Amino acid sequence: MKITLLGTGTPMPDLHKFGTSTLIEAGGLRVLLDCGRGAVVRLAQIGVPAGSIDAVLISHFHSDHYAALPDLVMTGAIPAPWGARRRRLRVVGPEGVREVVDGLWAFMSGDRTIRVADRRSTPTCSASMSASFPKASSSTRTGCASSPSRSITGIS
User: Fold this and answer.
1) Which listed residue (34, 64, 71, 102) is catalytic?
2) Does the active-site annotation cover 14?
3) In whole angstroms, what is the distance from residue 85 CA to residue 52 CA?
4) What is the DSSP string of 90-153?
């Protein structure tokens, strides 16, 4: 197991401290605990492609703990060595994470549309997300969908 502190800052903008984010690498998986401001920049600095992150665990809904989630999703969708997401990004958090993911997905619709039109990306898989929280239903959808989608998976 390898743990890398990507940022330990506070909500206050600071040129010397990035937002709260920790990279956990274990068992062939890469997981971010929180995704604060600058997380994608810090990943690039250590040579970890944004598209290689398997999951993001959001500890709570202060914006400084998930402000970089749009950047992680769409940078990971770019078909370049530092992006190239090939599977769904799982987002896990407290109850309400589904609303966050749904809102984020709607917010990024213009970006996805342009990328498909430019044929630079196929966000059907590369920019898709799933959300999980403890009291979710047990229905699940795995793998890449044939169209952009979000899914909710229960945690047992």
Assistant:
1) 64
2) no
3) 6
4) EEE-STTHHHHHHHHHHHTHHHHHHHHHTTS--HHHHT-EEEE-TT--S----S--SS--EEEE
| Structure tokens given for 2 | 């390898």
Splitting the chain (156 residues) into consecutive groups of 10 residues, what average pLDDT does each group show?
A: 94 89 96 96 95 94 93 86 85 90 88 75 53 49 35 32
Closest CA to 105 of 65, 132, 73, 152: 73
Give the residue among 65, 64, 3 at the shortest CA–CA distance from 30: 3
The reported pLDDT for the residue numbered 11 is 87
Residue 120's pLDDT is what?
58
Q: What is the DSSP letter of 18?
A: P
Phi and psi at 35, nearest 5°, equal -145, 65
Q: State the residue for tokens 């769409």.
A: 74
**Contact of 76 with 68, CB cutoff 8 Å:** no
The candidate with the shortest Cα–Cα distance to 93, out of 29, 152, 9, 11, is 152
Q: Record the pTM.
A: 0.77
pLDDT value of position 86 = 82
- Closest C-alpha among 35, 143, 141, 50 to residue 88: 143
Calculate helix-pair angle for 109-117, 69-77, nearest 10 degrees: 10
